[in-house]
Design goal:
This protein is mainly β. The chain has no helices and eleven strands. The strands form three sheets. A five-stranded antiparallel beta sheet has the order 2-3-11-6-9, with no helix packed on it.
Amino acid sequence: MPAPAIATLQVDDERVRVTEWRFPPGTATGWHRHGMDYVVVPMTDGVLTLVGKDGRAEGRITRGVSYSRGSGVEHDVVNETDKEIVFVEIELKR
């Protein structure tokens, strides 16, 4: 079982929750379900392993190239590389 990734809550107000996620090599979020729509802002380039109900997939992120997902996504996010990967997650409460 991988060690936990490092989550640092930056903002949590009535509109958004902003969390910085740091994934040193060998860390993971743990299985979770997203209860809100969200935007990911990569701070580094890298490849994360996404483990879902249907198996595993590689998720390549590029520094400064954001993407969004809807609520309901269920997965574990794992860093199986040899470098730290960092992104900021912005969850939309409205």
